[in-house]
Each structure stands twice: as C-alpha cells, then as structure tokens.
Amino acid sequence: MSTDSHSTSAMADLTPIVKLSAVNKHYGPLHVLQNINLEVTKGEVVVVLGPSGSGKSTLCRTINRLETIDDGSIEIDGKVLPEEGKALAKLRADVGMVFQSFNLFAHKTILENVTLGPIKAKGMKKAEADKLAMSLLERVGVANQKDKLPAQLSGGQQQRVAIARALAMRPKVMLFDEPTSALDPEMINEVLDTMIGLAKEGMTMIVVTHEMGFARKAADRVIFMADGQIVEEATPEQFFTNPTSARAKDFLGKLITN
Q1: Would you say 221 and 233 are in contact if contact means Cβ atoms under 8 Å apart?
Q2: pTM, entire model
Q3: pLDDT above 90 (res 83)
Q4: 107-151: per-residue pLDDT in tens?
Q5: How many whole angstroms separate alpha carbon 21 and alpha carbon 86?
Q6: Is the pLDDT at 99 greater than 80, yes or no?
Q7: Which residue of 54, 152, 201, 220 pairs with 148 in a disulfide if CB–CB is 3.0 to 4.6 A?
Q8: Which parts of the sequence belong to the ABC transporter domain (predicted)?
C-alpha cells in the first residue's frame, strides 16, 4: 500500500477488510486481471479509474465472486472468499454491491425491495426490517417513495434505493461498479452526494467510476488500471496533479481535452 490518508499507527493494527493477492483472471486468451495485489483497510474509500477494457469492473465483480478467478486469493475481513455454497453466501452478505443498472424487483415496492434481503437472508422480523429500511431510505433521501414501484421513480432515485438495499445487509464493504453511468446527467450528482455522505460516515468503499470530481472529493486513494494491471496508486491530489506513469498521463490528458 503506497499512500493514503490514514495514519500509519492506525493502520498497523488493522487487518485489511479486502485483500487481493496475486489474482489472475482470463476470458479465453484475454488476460483481464494480471497478478493483482490490493489491500483496502476499514473506512477507506478507494476509487478505481482507467480506460474502458482495463479490467476495473472485473476486479470489482471478483471481490464478491460474481466473477471467478483463475488463481490467487481474495480475503474479506481476514477470511478467504470460498468458491461456492453457504460459506460464500454468508461472506458475500458482508459485501454490498451497487451496479450500473439498479436491479430492483419491478413488482415489489421500494420498501419491500430494501427489506427482502434482511428478512430472507438474515432472518430479520418484518417490523425490524421495515424500521431499518425506513431509516436507510431516509438516509438516501427517498423515504417518501416507499410505497411506489421502481418504475415510478427516476433513475437517480432508483439508484439511491439500490444503495439503501445494499446497506440493509449491514455490509463491511460496499462495491460500486459504475453506479452513475446509466443515469441522465442531472441525476448523477444526487447519487454521488449519497456516496460522499457514506464515505464521510466511514463506510469502506471500492468505487469503479468515470466521475473524476467524486474521485477528487471522496477518495483516500486512487487506483489506476490499464490492460488488466494496476499501473499506479496514489492520493487523488498526487494522481491528478502529478501522475507518474505514461498511461495515466495519457488517460488524464484525454479527459482534460475532451
């Protein structure tokens, strides 16, 4: 781990919440993740940047084994991610995931979408799940939409419900895979503001995004990927003002001129 905003004394007694060691992944002949080593500590916000096809989303999806890996290991809070079965389901519950598409159940109300996981997966009583869901919907600013169906909400509202649904499982880490890429421009900020709020509250987050403003504002550390490799790790300040690799300079140069 190179640089981040946490003090070294605090870091010394922290087991990483997420640890990837020598992770490789192929799609046929394509080597999409090449010997990835990454540690994320509790409360840290890591933003993953890079051009399309660099392996960012695949990296994100391997962390709760939506994608399998060919070799290496992934640990969540000190436990190696199992390959399948109940142990995987249990560990996966510690990892919240928010996708590009909101993946809400169309025939269930907003409240039901958020309570489903705690009731089904964690055996929570309905009254307790409803109370938790309402507090989370309040937190993401859509509590007044609780009785509506997803199709009655804007894209930005649906994505905030998806965030509340992930939080309802009380995860140890939240993964965001391009959470604003399917949204209209005017809705992007409402989702990013929700995510910035979570970061300030100390949620451990790994965020794959093209939103440079979010990376500057909320990240403790920026990971830059290209061609399936982590090319550079730095604080946002260092990365945006003084990138060290030619690939990162090229990437930022194209963003600034577009």
Answers
A1: yes
A2: 0.90
A3: no
A4: 999 999 999 999 998 899 999 999 999 999 999 999 999 999 999
A5: 23
A6: yes
A7: 152
A8: 18-252
Q: Which amino acid is residue 119, in one-letter code?
A: I
79: its two tokens: 């436990």
Taken in order 104, 202, 224, 28, the sign of the CA dihedral is negative
- Is the model more confident about 188 or about 257? 188
**103 vs 180: CA distance, rounded Å:** 14
Return the pLDDT at 10: 42
Q: Rounded CA gap, 230 and 212, in Å?
A: 18
**pLDDT for 82:** 78
Domains, the chain, in order of start with CATH, read 18-103+172-257 (3.40.50.300)
d(CA 68, CA 32): 12
> Token digits for 249?
């300079």
**Please, is 149 exposed, middle or buried when counting C-beta atoms within 10 Å of its C-beta (0-12, 13-18, 19+)?**
middle
Sheet holding 205-208, edge to edge: 95-98, 173-177, 205-208, 45-49, 221-226, 229-234
- Per-residue pLDDT tens for 198-235? 999 999 999 999 999 999 999 999 999 999 999 999 99
Sheet (strand 71-76) strand order:
30-40, 18-27, 71-76, 79-80
Residues with Cβ within 8 Å of residue 119, at least 6 apart in sequence: 125, 126, 129
